[in-house]
Specification:
mainly alpha; Growth Hormone, Chain: A; 6 helices
């Protein structure tokens, strides 16, 4: 492979990674309104990045075995998870006695990471069929989604300061809207 083909492949993978990472950015924007510490934001970004490495790798390894069927299902599962997360954030913003039921910690973080990386699995299926360089693609996906997650979480944190007590409801609404988009579009 010559240099121009290598650059074109990296550019193509970068564009795909950016498109996939925009879900992580958008969801991070909503989750960032939970008044997260910077150390938690850093950790969440790393976990999201790891999921954006693992999921396309798993998809590429599965190859064309389930690509025709699983691509649509991944969007529905991811959308459903985001609907649940968004709904519970909206509901908890109206309650003064309890906090968020699902926080981006422990199992909640796994659910969060899984919901924004399921589409990476289906993209991985396609890349596996076309013979993309698996490790390079996964690393590019992981790095870009980590950066976009950090940007979304930090921007969400800033927005939360501006909107005050309505920030959690706004964040939940963003997650809910993204979930609807994944399911119906």
């Amino acid at each position: 492979m010559n240099v121009s083909e290598w650059v074109f492949e990296l550019f193509t993978l970068g564009v795909m990674a950016f498109a996939l990472g925009m879900d992580a950015f958008s969801v991070g924007l909503g989750m960032g309104m939970l008044k997260l510490r910077l150390s938690r934001i850093f950790f969440i970004g790393i976990i999201i990045g790891l999921f954006h490495i693992i999921m396309p790798l798993a998809g590429m390894l599965c190859g064309n075995l389930v690509s025709a069927h699983f691509g649509g299902i991944a969007a529905y599962i991811g959308g459903g998870l985001l609907l649940i997360l968004g709904f519970q954030m909206i509901m908890s913003s109206f309650r003064s006695d309890s906090g968020v039921l699902i926080m981006p910690v422990g199992v909640g973080l796994i659910v969060f990471a899984l919901s924004v990386s399921l589409d990476s699995f289906s993209v991985g299926l396609s890349l596996g069929i076309y013979g993309a360089r698996i490790i390079i693609a996964a690393i590019v996906f992981g790095i870009i989604s980590t950066i976009l997650t950090w940007l979304g979480l930090i921007l969400g944190r800033k927005v939360q300061d501006w909107v005050g007590s309505y920030g959690e409801a706004l964040g939940g609404s963003i997650l809910f809207a993204i979930g609807l988009k994944l399911i119906f579009m």
